[in-house]
Write a structure and sequence with these properties.
Number of domains of chain A: 2
Oligomer: heterotrimer
Shape of chain A: flat
Chains: A mainly alpha (299), B alpha/beta (321), C mainly alpha (268)
CATH class of the largest domain in chain A: Mainly Alpha
Mean pLDDT of chain A: 79
Number of helices of chain C: 12
Helix content of chain A: 55-70%
Radius of gyration of chain A: 27 Å
Structural class of chain C: mainly alpha
Strand order of the largest sheet of chain A: 1-2
Low-confidence stretches of chain C: none
CATH superfamily of the largest domain in chain A: Tetratricopeptide repeat domain
């Protein structure tokens, strides 16, 4: 006998059941992964062992670990758990770059993920630098890596001496762009000056590899613009006090007195805030440019 | 009720992967096999004999047509209890011993353990396997495997037995034993359907035969009715024959053909007329001596060869399928 | 039903006589030497490592048996034509197929049972040999019965892989079947990533395909609770129940598919 027609019906029903059960499973809360413990992914945490185990599939293994690193970063960043940790982020990035030392995007993004302060990132600029330095051991002539280190020192650690040294090192490497040398100089001379920050972010906004990075750069530039704007308005407020002996109570008062032509806004269009008691000009708390970078040394 | 019955049983295969062409393996076979007879299924290689057997065992499915065993359509599980099958060049699980294999098959029929052992032992005796029955089958020769194959086909005392080339791999002694076994089966009332190209066996065993060539049935019926068992000539062996005498006899067509066996000794083929006694007397008169005189009848082999070559070529199917 | 039993017992006999079960000896030796060596090298972490190693080995050995025997189960009989005499007996084609499957599952069950016994023996030894203050630092005792949950799900996973191997065995050669079965297993293990991938890539077509594959391919990653039990995290019975139901339903689906393919075949 051939096949009973009922068999086909059963087949279809079972298939539907399988898909349905899978959907139910997917909707369940996932099993807890213990805090601070390495995940399955990282069971072999020694990159050397893993490299040997992966045999000729190092590149594929590197891809998989990179995907896991991104998932870990994203998942932790979005998590509402107050105790969340980015504990395996560095090991994952370390394994990925050991498997495939030429995996450029890992260094770039990895250092950003690591350096970003907690809870938006791991808050470990030291690890970011370690990752970039590891890359330089394999690729001693890759200027982007050296520039990356300089950037971490400059932006997150505010160590301008070291930042300038790294920018100089980057400028010495083949195919380095022209703006690195002047940047090193400016950094060394004035350190923390908004001008050098602006140069850096402008470059990244133009050349950055990914939308995410370019958007960051644009955002930072807007923040710098906001800082500049605050300085300008602050000067006008001082002029007002100098003239009237009092801090202005509001923007309209200043406009009426002829000190301003319109309500001053930040680059996103949100009006600045004026504290009538202290005369401080600040960003409106609702502005998306908050928080502004820590107060830079004098203008 | 016939033991086996087919109606226009047809099978074609699609051969080739990219542009499958139809290959006709069996074309409209219609035949009946009565209960209790020994039926020979004959034909050259590739004629469709094994295809027919596989269709009867439902190892393959027909493209069209029907087949029945003991009144039920092939594949009926109840009927399978009452039949036995020996495939061509059988292979069995080589990690089992002969005893274990038979007991396993007996278990599938549902016999209790004691009965399984009894049947296995009895059949191994009947096919002539002695102490080797405890050896794993991987150690068996081709001939011994063939005997095991026959044993497993009979494990359930079947009413109809299908044997595909039962004599293959056996020495002359083995062939004689199996011939006797088949006759014993017939005496027990079993129907034996076997395919073979050893015509001598078919001649001695079968009551009826069917001849297949190029996927078609070319002849079927009682052996005695199918071709003339009557005498169609004579073979005369003489010694001391003079060559001139022979030449003259050939000229006047008293001798059709002469084969020289030795000096003066000839085997002569004589026609039906004139009667051989007369020709013999003439030759004796010239000084020859009689050695032997035997009638020539048609053999199955002659008939077979005639039928097969007359069967023509394999019919082609239209490509469209 | 009885016929299925006989076929199953025969498959088990074959695996015994093919010396497949010698792998158990290798497993036991591996585990015991590993525990001894690791005991010499580390302090305190060794129980976790042995637990991990034991579970992984049970899984790997079982998988090897499931795939390498499973792919030949049907194919070998058809190729060598031993199936001719069998199907001429009063046996339906599906009884043959299910009998083969159950026989391999039986072999696996016995294999896993023996490995589990050896595993617990080694863990009990470690439990006895460790000083009490070290034992107090463990999140769960060495001979934690919760490990059985992981082993039960491993067994379920093996049964599903076996079914898939048998399915491929009904129509393709061993080499191809091995590759296909392994491919399905690998994809099934990365199922979670498939789902994440489907949620993050921009192209809607690719996302739809990823999600489709995620739902259809067997979700092997769900059977993997090794991490949880080793760290003594709770694995609720509702989870096990749902996963088991999923597993059995998928097995049924694959076997019905295999029966359909097998029943329609011509054995040339």
């Amino acid at each position: 006998m051939k096949v009973h027609p009922a068999a086909w019906v059963v087949l279809v029903l079972l298939f539907a059941a399988v898909v349905g059960l899978q959907m139910i499973q997917a909707a369940q809360p996932p099993l807890r992964v213990p805090n601070g413990a390495s995940t399955n992914v990282l069971y072999v945490s020694s990159p050397q062992v893993l490299g040997r185990a992966a045999l000729s599939y190092r590149a594929l293994a590197a891809d998989i670990y990179w995907i896991r690193a991104v998932q870990h970063y994203g998942g932790t960043k979005l998590s509402k758990d107050p105790n969340k940790q980015y504990d395996v982020l560095y090991p994952l990035l370390d394994v990925t770059t050991s498997l495939d030392p030429y995996f450029d995007v890992v260094y770039k993004f990895g250092s950003v993920f690591l350096a970003e302060p907690y809870p938006g990132g791991a808050g470990r600029p030291d690890q970011a630098i370690a990752l970039l330095e590891k890359g330089l051991r394999t690729r001693p002539e890759k200027w982007e890596l050296a520039q990356g280190v300089g950037f971490v020192y400059y932006w997150w650690l505010a160590d301008y001496q070291r930042a300038a040294m790294w920018f100089n090192r980057a400028a010495d490497m083949p195919a380095a762009p022209d703006w690195l040398r002047p940047l090193a100089a400016v950094t060394l001379a004035q350190g923390g000056n908004r001008a050098s920050s602006r140069v850096l972010w402008t470059e990244i906004a133009r050349d950055g590899d990914a939308d995410w990075l370019r958007r960051q750069a644009t955002f930072r530039l807007e923040q710098l613009d906001a800082l500049d704007g605050i300085d300008v308005i602050q000067r006008v407020v001082h002029q007002y006090r100098g003239r009237t002996g009092m801090w202005p109570a509001s923007w309209s008062e200043m406009m009426r007195a002829g000190f301003l032509r319109g309500v001053p806004t930040d680059p996103t269009g949100v009006p600045f805030q004026l504290d009538p008691v202290t005369g401080q000009v600040t960003l409106d708390p609702s502005s998306s440019l908050n928080p502004l970078p820590a107060a830079q040394p004098t203008l | 009720m016939d033991a086996i019955r087919t109606e226009a049983l047809t099978k074609h295969y699609q051969v080739g992967f990219w542009r499958p062409r139809p290959y006709l393996a069996l074309d409209g076979l219609t035949m009946e096999v009565g209960q209790g007879e020994i039926f020979g299924f004959l034909g050259p290689n590739g004629a469709g004999k094994t295809t027919t057997l596989k269709l009867l065992m439902q190892l393959i499915y027909p493209t069209s047509g029907r087949a029945e065993i003991l009144g039920k359509p092939v594949g009926d599980v109840g009927v399978k209890r009452r039949i036995g099958y020996l495939p061509e060049q059988p292979y069995f699980y080589d990690y089992l011993t002969a005893e274990e294999l038979l007991q396993y098959f007996a278990a599938i029929f549902g016999y209790p353990p004691a009965e399984r052992r009894r049947r296995a032992a009895a059949l191994l005796d009947e096919v002539g396997i002695g102490a080797e029955r405890r050896l794993p089958l991987r150690k068996f020769s081709k001939g011994m495997l063939q005997r095991v194959g026959i044993a497993q086909a009979l494990i359930n005392d079947p009413e109809v037995v299908f044997l595909d080339e039962p004599m293959s791999g056996l020495d002359p002694l083995g062939r004689r034993e199996i011939r006797q076994l088949i006759l014993r089966l017939r005496d027990r009332g079993c129907t034996v359907f076997f395919s073979s190209h050893v015509l001598a066996d078919a001649e001695t065993l079968c009551s009826r035969v069917a001849i297949l060539a190029n996927a078609r049935l070319v002849a079927a019926g009682r052996l005695t009715e199918m071709f003339a068992f009557e005498v169609r000539g004579w073979e005369l062996v003489v010694s001391g024959l003079n060559e001139d005498v022979l030449a003259r006899a050939q000229q006047c067509r008293h001798v059709i053909r002469a084969t020289r066996l030795a000096e003066g000794r000839y085997a002569l083929e004589l026609p039906l007329a004139p009667p051989p006694e007369r020709t013999l007397a003439e030759l004796i008169a010239t000084g020859a001596a009689l050695v032997s005189l035997t009638p020539i009848r048609d053999t199955l082999e002659d008939f077979f060869v005639r039928q097969v070559s007359a069967g023509g070529s394999r019919p082609r199917l239209p490509e469209s399928a | 039903m009885r016929v299925i039993g006989h076929v199953a017992v025969n498959v088990f006999k074959e695996s015994v006589r093919d010396k497949v079960l010698y792998n158990l000896v290798v497993f036991a030796v591996l585990l015991m030497s590993a525990s001894y060596l690791i005991g010499e090298l580390t302090a305190g972490q060794d129980v976790k490592i042995i637990k991990d190693l034991g579970l992984a080995s049970i899984s790997v050995f079982g998988l090897a048996i499931a795939v390498f025997i499973g792919i030949g189960l049907v194919w070998k009989e058809v190729e060598k034509r031993s199936i001719y005499t069998l199907l001429a007996k009063p046996m339906r084609r599906q009884e043959f197929l299910l009998g083969k499957y159950c026989g391999l599952v039986l072999t696996l069950v016995i294999n896993v049972a023996v490995m589990t016994a050896a595993y617990y023996a080694v863990l009990a030894y470690m439990q006895a040999m460790s000083p009490p203050n070290l034992r107090a630092s463990w999140p769960a005792p060495a001979t934690d019965p919760a490990l059985l949950k992981a082993i039960a799900l491993i067994m379920l996973e093996l049964m599903l892989v076996t079914a898939i191997a048998v399915l491929f065995s009904t129509f393709s050669s061993p080499f191809l079947s091995a590759m296909l079965t392994t491919a399905v297993w690998v994809i099934g293990h990365f199922n979670q990533d498939l789902r994440d991938y489907g949620a993050t890539i921009p192209s809607p077509l690719a996302a739809a395909i990823a999600r489709g594959v995620y739902y259809v391919v067997p979700n092997f990653s769900a059977f993997d609770v090794k991490l949880q039990v080793v760290h003594a995290q709770a694995v609720p019975f509702s989870y096990i129940g749902l996963t088991t139901l999923y597993g059995f339903t998928y097995i049924a689906l694959v076997l019905v598919g295999a029966v359909i393919i097998f029943s329609r075949r011509d054995f040339k």
